[in-house]
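tokens incoming
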């Protein structure tokens, strides 16, 4: 036992090719080995078959020239890639939600690509469909669901994962009304309002009776799946202001209608404002408008904010007792994998009072890294009470694109979206024959499933693996935030500047902005930060020579109300200015890299960062910024 646990200890430095290709030898040798395996596999298939391409063919002029062109095109591609790609692997890159990807995932992907499985149908992917189901189970378990009852699978990304969640929530909401049409006895005595407020589990239990009575197809035909969406009858979908853009697309595509997407305010920390959520629900209920669903974000795309999922779960349970029910989805496309930092080596949620010691021991947290705050801890813990969760392996799973995932607490929900009979998991068979019939997408790369599956096998989904890796980024983000907050006003070309972080990171995103001391114009401050972004991104040309690369975002009143006000005030901007300009431009750093303090100490990293920003400010001033 002891030995087994020791074996599972993950060394973070062995997971990546590395910022300086330190692990190139292993990577190349293993890739070569996998290619050899594949080519032998081809040759060994019916060894008696004659070769289709003869040696004579291979000496033909056209043949040689075709290969020559192949090589030339690849050289051209390589030159383009090397000139203008973004060096995610370097700790100098603190921008979007990516960093280096795991060697094992890259190798698994490249090796599987050669076999080109299609996970739409089992007959096209006997290996990788099984791997996809297994990876889905891994995620279900990590998120605190019962893997025997849950359903998880890989999507092309968080966008499609969210579409699927809204899809099942929508279909589910219409089922009790459909049952009333098809088998009124089952819901006798319930008003339409009560039918539209039936708890998720109760609907799924009722469907078991419907299936037993052989009426599933009829009920589906009477649900929105058959009837279409009728004028917002199913109610409103409540999403926080911090939502990802794909929620607007989802409401449109799925016929919910943008008007039925209700935006819930966020607080100063960019988390859903619970009072506003409650008021919104009360207001709708008073008008007898049902609530189709509520969405909480774990790791908002722009700020990395973690909604208080535990409070939303409490609200849902309270309302359910009062006869008001809604579907609860957690959009953890970005933050989901961070739940691993809270799970011990036996995948149990670590008690709060023991977590700090664990993080110190496993992840090198020092005393001054005061993470996580209690509410973030509680939010991650409560995720398992949601009806479904979006979680992206291609973000904090450190897996190459395109790998998102959606996990549903109760797999019976699949019957609501499929066009097929509900037989897939019966008889203990965990491999649906036709995955494509239960998901939004059709043909899709089995290589993706292999790369997620392989990552989960090498890097455990708890504090000994992913937790440790992600915690290194969090440690970097907390340090970066602290340095930004402690930075005194500084001089460039005789002018004085300040920098300020937006909020304390809930985990690993830090937003920040610079201003000139004394400048009270928000549009001028926005212009300064935009120019800084241009100096630190592809927009000033290929980034290969850049010393620091980041991303940016704008927070405006349309999307965020007055949530950013406190922040701009700290930078010397008045409320009047904020109300006039209505938008603040910030630089945004997602700290996924575990290597922030590897090349040098963290203090040296910070000093380099400030020197870089000073020299960029110098360029901006020399270019005539007033
Ligand atoms: C990134 C993100 C998405 C969209 O995911 P893709 O993988 O880009 O499709 C959705 N929600 C949140 C919170 C995200 O961060």
């Amino acid at each position: 036992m002891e030995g087994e646990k020791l074996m599972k200890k993950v060394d973070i430095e062995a997971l990546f090719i590395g910022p300086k290709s330190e692990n190139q030898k292993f990577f190349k040798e293993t890739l070569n080995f996998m290619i050899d395996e594949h080519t032998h596999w081809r040759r060994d298939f019916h060894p008696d078959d004659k070769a289709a391409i003869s040696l004579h063919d291979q000496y033909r002029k056209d043949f040689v020239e075709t290969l020559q062109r192949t090589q030339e095109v690849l050289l051209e591609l390589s030159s383009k890639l090397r000139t203008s790609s973004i060096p995610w692997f370097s700790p100098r890159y603190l921008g979007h939600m990516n960093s280096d990807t795991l060697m094992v995932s890259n190798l698994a992907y490249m090796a599987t690509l050669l076999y080109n499985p299609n996970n739409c149908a089992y007959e096209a992917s006997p290996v990788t469909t099984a791997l996809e189901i297994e990876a889905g189970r891994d995620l279900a378990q990590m998120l605190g669901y019962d893997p025997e009852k849950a359903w998880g699978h890989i999507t092309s990304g968080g966008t499609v994962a969210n579409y699927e969640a809204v899809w099942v929530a929508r279909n589910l909401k219409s089922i009790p009304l459909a049952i009333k049409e098809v088998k009124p006895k089952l819901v006798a005595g319930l008003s339409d309002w009560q039918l539209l407020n039936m708890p998720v589990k109760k609907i799924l239990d009722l469907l078991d009776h419907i299936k037993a009575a052989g009426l599933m197809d009829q009920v589906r035909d009477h649900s929105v799946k058959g009837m279409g969406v009728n004028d917002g009858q199913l109610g409103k979908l409540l999403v926080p202001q911090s939502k990802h853009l794909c929620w607007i697309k989802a409401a449109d595509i799925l016929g919910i209608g943008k008007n039925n997407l209700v935006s819930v305010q966020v607080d100063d920390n960019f988390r859903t404002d619970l009072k506003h959520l409650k008021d919104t629900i009360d207001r709708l209920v008073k008008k007898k408008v049902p609530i189709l669903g509520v969405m909480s974000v774990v790791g908002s795309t722009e700020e990395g904010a973690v909604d208080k999922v535990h409070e939303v779960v409490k609200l849902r349970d309270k309302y359910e007792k009062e006869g008001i029910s809604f579907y609860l989805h957690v959009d953890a496309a970005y933050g989901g994998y961070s739940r691993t930092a809270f799970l011990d080596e036996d995948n149990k949620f670590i008690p709060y009072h023991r977590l700090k010691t664990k993080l110190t021991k496993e992840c090198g947290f020092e005393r001054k890294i005061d993470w996580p705050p209690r509410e973030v801890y509680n939010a991650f813990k409560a995720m398992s009470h949601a009806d479904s969760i979006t979680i992206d392996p291609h973000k904090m799973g450190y897996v190459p694109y395109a790998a998102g995932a959606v996990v549903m607490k109760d797999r019976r929900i699949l019957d609501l979206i499929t066009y097929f009979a509900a037989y897939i998991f019966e008889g203990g068979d965990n491999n649906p024959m036709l995955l494509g019939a239960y998901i939004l997408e059709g043909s899709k790369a089995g290589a993706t499933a292999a790369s997620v599956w392989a990552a989960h096998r090498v890097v455990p989904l708890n504090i000994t693996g992913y937790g440790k890796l992600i915690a290194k980024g969090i440690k970097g983000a907390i340090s970066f935030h602290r340095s930004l907050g402690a930075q005194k006003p500084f001089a460039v070309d005789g002018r004085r500047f300040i920098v300020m972080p937006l909020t304390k990171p809930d985990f690993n995103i830090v937003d920040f902005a610079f201003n000139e001391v004394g400048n009270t114009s928000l549009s001028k401050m926005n212009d300064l930060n935009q120019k800084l972004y241009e100096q630190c991104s592809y927009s000033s040309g290929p980034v290969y020579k850049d010393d620091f690369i980041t991303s940016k975002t704008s927070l405006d009143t349309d999307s965020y109300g007055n949530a950013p006000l406190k922040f701009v005030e700290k930078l010397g901007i008045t409320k009047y200015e904020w109300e006039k300009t209505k938008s603040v431009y910030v630089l945004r750093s997602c700290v996924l890299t575990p290597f922030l303090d590897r090349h040098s100490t963290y203090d040296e990293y910070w000093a380099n960062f400030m020197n870089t920003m000073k020299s960029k400010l110098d360029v901006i001033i020399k270019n005539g910024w007033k």
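note: The two ends are 67 Å apart (CA to CA).
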